Amino acid sequence: MAQHDSADCPVALVVEDDAAIRNLASAVLEETDLDVIACSSAEAAISVLERPDVNVALLFADVGLEGKMDGLALARTVEKRWPKVRMVVTSGRANDRNESLPRRAVFMQKPWRALDVLVQADRATIANRVA
To answer: 67: alpha, beta or left, given left = phi > 0 and alpha = psi -120 to 50?
Structure first.
């Protein structure tokens, strides 16, 4: 996990309960201008988003999270509470791309390609600079 000295540095928040996929997504995103914070649950992600010293630019979350809140519920919460955060929601099941996904969220079928993740990170970085 990268060190965060101020809220000025944009962050990619990776939320994935599978450690191998979480580590892979984090490694891909560490190649961008974003710092990376990874967590295994939506509840942990909300705790990060609520921190005033963290500027989350990109949420990269799996639909099938364990806990009280899945990735779709997390995306809907982020859409309401943090509307400037760019969202990418992933799943290995195609039918998880449903109408409950926020319109602003990008759905990415697993296995996703690193290039597609990097494109979304770049867009989040640009949008964060403008905001």
So the answer is: left
